[in-house]
Amino acid sequence: MFTGIVEEIGEVVDVRPGQDSAVLRIRGPRVVTDARHGDSICVNGVCLTVTDLDAETFSVDVMAETLDRSDLGALRPGAPVNLERAMSPGGRLGGHLVQGHVDGTGTVRSRTPGEAWEVVEIGLPAELSRYLVEKGSVTVNGVSLTVVGVRPDAFTVSLIPTTLTDTTLGRLPIGATVNLEVDVIGKYVATYLDRIGTGWAHQNGGDHE
Predict the structure, then answer these.
(1) Burial class (CB in 10 A: 0-12, 13-18, 19+), 187
(2) What is the pTM (predicted TM-score) of this model?
(3) What are the C-alpha distances in Å from 113 to residues 67, 68, 156?
(4) Domain carrying residue 177
(5) What is the CATH number of the domain that holds 73?
């Protein structure tokens, strides 16, 4: 589990593609300081398992499902990525509960600068918009953000100066692809209500009378 508070901007140093998978080597001196083989590190919003590491870099395997649902398959050496170590028990939940399970990708549609921030509009698949609410949480490329506005095919977020400088979101151009993870609590609630509506819960032993 993660919080969506990026610890550092890492860099892809090597990509080894397979038939339906890939191995990424990523430079992240801060996140590897106490990392071990088998630990989880969130890369651009995707929870990945460390398979090898040294003083500055670590390797991860990326499977077909992850390549299909995220932008990791398009990464090339030199690409910047947001990195976060898994949350430790007793740690501060600075963002929101982030699983690192990407629900789909979106596209940066516009960037509107403010006095010290930017409002960014991101297009998203229609099936994901039902999980977004104003002032709710969403994860964009591993960054915990507050939803400003929602439409059936897009949403907006405001990026404060820290987010603009300390994550990759400050440098994304119009048209860039981003990884999206909607609030897991919202997904559970929506799915539960859907099942009640279809009678699934009653058929499977639930009591809703």
Answers:
(1) middle
(2) 0.89
(3) 32, 32, 13
(4) 104-192
(5) 2.40.30.20
